[in-house]
């Protein structure tokens, strides 16, 4: 095998070459990593995009700085801004995108090893990705508990409190602590499932990253765990992380839904994906 093909697993650094690689059967352990950019087409703003990003639109909440809305110390001091935002972001009002459906299709085809997501919108679950193949690295709105004694808080009760943007207190009267969804705030530990699966990216034979600035660690370190020679495909508006530094990095810089549709068409999965998405 000549030297120059050793590092280039792909025929060239294009979406079509990745499709060829998948069709060749050499991608059976695909690891997908997603951020807020995969859900913007669903109507959920991301965090850092200029103008539309959440952190540029929280002035109405009178925060010391935008990230404070997700900081545990600020939440203890004043939980109201978070609950105002929670009302806007709460799952149930949004529909999975074609990109979410693509991840579910990979799972259906037994090609998905794991999905790591930073998102708290549960759209991956709604798209039909099997829960055992999802690592919600920053938690989600799915459950909630007292931040002091950790006693779980009832779901139905929580939905009412979020609807009225009124922060609930612990079910245990003698505690009375504030209740927060199981979203990982700045200053909090990531869930155990993240650390239990943190070496999974080393098993990948293809890594696909969608819609993230790769600014927040330790999640941002995941793409670097891919072994040399394993193709890494980025669907993002901008270049992020260390993408582009490896011979088998493929960068699609644009709307992720367009890039994923291009990959899916090259794979010949277009009809199957559209049908699956429509039925969600
Ligand atoms: N198509 C492709 N890329 C997109 C799209 C889109 N439709 N919309 C946004 N993007 C890109 C943006 O250009 C940006 O690079 O997605 C990325 C989103 O980055 P962030 O807003 O920083 O979101 P994310 O990376 O998920 O943030 C990580 O930060 O605030 C914390 O815990 C929070 O999980 C979050 C973490």
Structural description of this entry:
- This protein is elongated.
- The N and C termini lie far apart (46 Å).
- α6 (123-127) links the parallel β2 and β3 (134-136).
- The protein has ten helices and eight strands.
- It has helices at 3-7, 15-23, 72-77, 80-89, 98-108, 123-127, 155-163, 192-196, 256-267, 270-278; strands spanning 30-34, 112-117, 134-136, 139-146, 179-183, 206-210, 232-236, 249-253.
- By secondary structure, it is an alpha/beta fold.
- The strands form two sheets. A six-stranded parallel β-sheet has the order 3-2-1-6-7-8, with helices on one face. Strands 4-5 form a two-stranded antiparallel sheet.
- The model is unreliable at 1-6 (pLDDT under 50).
- It binds adenosine-5-diphosphoribose.
Main attributes of the structure:
alpha/beta, 6-stranded parallel β-sheet, metal ion binding, 10 helices, binds adenosine-5-diphosphoribose
- The multimeric state of the shown protein is single chain
Q: What spatial order of strands do you see in the largest sheet?
A: 3-2-1-6-7-8
> Which class do the helix and strand fractions yield?
alpha/beta
Number of continuous helical runs: 10
Poorly predicted parts: 1-6
Biggest beta-sheet profile: 6 strands, parallel
Radius of gyration: 20 Å
Overall body shape: elongated
Mean pLDDT: 94
Number of strands: 8
Keywords: Coiled coil, Metal-binding, NAD, Transferase, Zinc
Binding site for Zn(2+): 146, 149, 170, 175
Active site: 138
Cofactor: Zn(2+)
